[in-house]
Amino acid sequence: ALRLAYLRSGGHDPAILDQLLHLQLEATVLETGTAGLRRGRRMGTPAVPAEPPGTATPGLDAALLAVELENRRLEEELLALKVRRERRADAGSQAAQRHTEELARLQAEVGMLRCHAEQRRPWLHAPVLPRPIAPPLPP
């Protein structure tokens, strides 16, 4: 939980991550050792762990735990990216919808203004021909 909280808050220092991983491994070893002791006592057998501490493969356990933790971190990062992408898509579609509505409103307003201007100035649409400069020539 500590490592995940550190990663979520933006932590990325390799030394601290290594230290947190080491602490988690120690806690796991202690928990499994304590669980083994409890199980042994309940069953009526001596309180001895299933495997002596030196015979297990600590490198393999550590590597497996590290891979599992990295998978969890990547899953959380992937989920965060998906959430951000959905938020951006929602924001983009909402902005596009607002722009479309504004454009339609402005186009309607321009159309109304054109109509209004045509009704007030009918002389603008009558064709205006220039006056003849000289009298027409005889045939």
UniProtKB/TrEMBL annotation:
Domain of life: Eukaryota
Coiled-coil intervals: 64-109
Record key words, sorted: Coiled coil
Protein's recorded name: CCD17 protein
Taxon lineage: Eukaryota, Metazoa, Chordata, Craniata, Vertebrata
Designated gene of the protein: Ccdc17
